[in-house]
Automatic annotation (TrEMBL):
Name of the gene this protein is made from: atpB
Family classification: Belongs to the ATPase alpha/beta chains family.
Organism in which the protein naturally occurs: Youxingia wuxianensis
Gene3D superfamilies registered for this protein in UniProt: 3.40.50.12240
Keyword hit for Ion transport: yes
A Pfam entry, by short name: ATP-synt_VA_C
Chain ranges of the ATPase F1/V1/A1 complex alpha/beta subunit N-terminal domain: 10-70
Biological function: Produces ATP from ADP in the presence of a proton gradient across the membrane. The V-type beta chain is a regulatory subunit.
Name the record gives this protein: V-type ATP synthase beta chain
CDD domains in the cross-refs: ATP-synt_V_A-type_beta_C, ATP-synt_V_A-type_beta_N, V_A-ATPase_B
Amino acid sequence: MKLQYIGLKEINGPLVVIDHVSSASYDEMVQINLDDGSTRMGRIVQIEGEKVVIQVFEGTRGLSLTNTVTNLLGHPMEIPLSKEMLGRVFSGSGEPIDDLGAIHPDKYVDINGKALNPVARTYPRNYINTGISSIDCLMTLIRGQKLPIFSGSGMNHNKLAVQIVRQAKIAEENGQQFGIVFAAMGVKNDVADYFRTSFEQSGAIKNVTMFINLSNDPIIERILTPRCALTVAEYLAFEHDMHILVIMTDMTSYAEALREFSSSKEEIPGRKGYPGYLYSDLASIYERAGVVHGHKGSVTQIPILTMPNDDITHPVPDLTGYITEGQIALDRNLDQKGIYPPVAVLPSLSRLMKDGIGEGYTRGDHAPLADQLFACYAKVQDARSLASVIGEEELSKQDKNYLEFGELFEKHFITQGFTDNRSIEETLDLGWQLLSLLPVEVLDRLNSKLISQYYDPEKGQELRNQR
């Protein structure tokens, strides 16, 4: 039943207050009718007795305290869903902005989603191939996983996001479809155009549903954007049996919108001014990933966030790390060297990687090879630290070997062209070629059978000759 109220008690920034309201619900949508005949949408964000606080999507300019008519619609925000949303571009609140007309929906669904019984979850298995060696080999993305990218201001995370969208695919399976839902929050016009143009030129747009919230759009739309995107992802995954990869950038912009929203409600701030419920709010987004019993599809998330001042202890990356299953960290020093993608190997990890790689998924040598590459690259950092103190000339022969390995590892394995799409076999073979630069006796994470099969000093010499 729709309820109608005339007049407002208070207008405060993007919020309006109505008194003497009965039977209102939290997150209920409202329609606000102005004197000039125009309408605006909003939602109830706070209820105190018979007083309700409404956040107006389009802002409160021009609203009258006496003549404004507010209709309570009796339902939360819903988004129309259809499989034809693939290949389309929407605003942050789900309105088409690609001039291709409205969606003909199969159904309308609450964007907040439904709580998923943990018992209904299936443990994530099998991997998504991104074509990027450092990710595929060392921090493999598993279907149903949430694996964030921790970046910094001015780094190439947007370029990396476009490359993942263009190249990502699942292992070949009969009848399995793959799609991507891309949500951009708080981006500038040129960045939004870059995403859209890149997807169109590469042809990836036909498998992508885009949600774009610009930096000058209302903050309430920014708060809705990831929820709209995930609702579409869940629909495609669990009703159309598709494997969906959701890429969301930038979650820091989302958190800042949440902080501004919390401040406008005069809530008591927590760390660095963020609301005390930031953890649970982020969890309500990140936990909408996974595989469900009885369904062939999956939802996998790659949230991208920029760390203010490259501080990994900042509340947004800190809380994100608690909720998600690992992280891909980008390194500013590598970025300044011109290395792309500047993936920092040592602080990055994928906690679900061990169960989605190996025989039957990637290749039997994947896990021990990744362990050995991690171990050797860690020793590279030790050798570099020692060289900075005593000088490279004073290093032992073994430390000099590690320095050479580190240089070639960054040049050939981490460094990869924007259009370079490597298969998992090419990536693993390149890893063995790099390990063949080192004496066989230091490869303590590999058994003799793997060494006899893949270790080849002549291939290592080929990399030396390319220096």
